[in-house]
Amino acid sequence: MLGIAASTSRIAKDAGVAEGTLFVYFASKDELLSQLYLDLKTDLRITLTAGYPSRANVEDRFRHLWIRLIEWRAKNPEKREAMRQLAVYEKITEAKRRAEDETCTDIQGMIEQDLRSGALREQPVAFLARLMEGLADMVFEMTAKDGGRLDEYSRLGWEALWGAISPR
User: Fold this and answer.
1) What is the per-residue pLDDT for 44?
2) What is the pTM of this model?
3) Among 1, 71, 85, 15, which Cα is nearest to 43's?
4) 157 Cβ partners below 8 Å, 6+ apart?
5) CB 139, CB 155: distance < 8 Å
6) Domains of the chain, first to last
7) Angle separating helix axes 8-15 and 29-49, nearest 10 degrees
């Protein structure tokens, strides 16, 4: 996997199209990568919010987000790796900002509502989101290192997350 270092000719070959065809739809490789990042973030948002139990208590709503995040990552390791690489690719910062604005507004609104209600420990939404991502990363690192005990590490990750965000 070459990631963001892949040439446009390699990208076109892997996609089964002529290299010139890429430039019919994208002005540059950076634009193509920006669109990929937006598409990946949208896919993740759709997964997280599908079936969201808006009338459930805050713990069940967050557990829903956690379970969906873990499921998405387990089913889509290539997408997760691509998103990880693109997130640090400095040439698509505008796309990253737009992705956060476009794909995370509804999730951010749900979290802000819970924060305002006092149902969660007061903290910036961005910190809470990064906490979830970091714990999910750890779940998969431990699963890979420890022979695939995804359910166990997911449960432990949830307990750590809920302990960090629930009011005391």
Assistant:
1) 92
2) 0.84
3) 71
4) 66, 70, 135, 136, 138, 139
5) no
6) 28-165 (1.10.357.10)
7) 50
